[in-house]
Amino acid sequence: MPGEGSRESYTGVDAIYTAAGELADVKIGQMAKAEKDRRIYVVFSDRLVQQDAWMRGAMRISAGELLNIIRDTEEEIRSELLSFCFQ
Question: pLDDT at position 5, please?
Fold first, then answer.
């Protein structure tokens, strides 16, 4: 629901939405600090948010970098499938 904090999970990836009035920057910093035993990736194009997450132990990439990773992965899968189907 709009304005309520929520979390969506899909194949090991969690998307976390902040509640109304909750700053995403603050939530990201809290999560990166709290989850020291897990590898956390912060996808955010704001350089200050990336730097804060990195200082708290999270990996950081921009939205554009994530899009490139997804596109490259799709192409690798497509190529593997085609080579498998036409052996």
Answer: 79
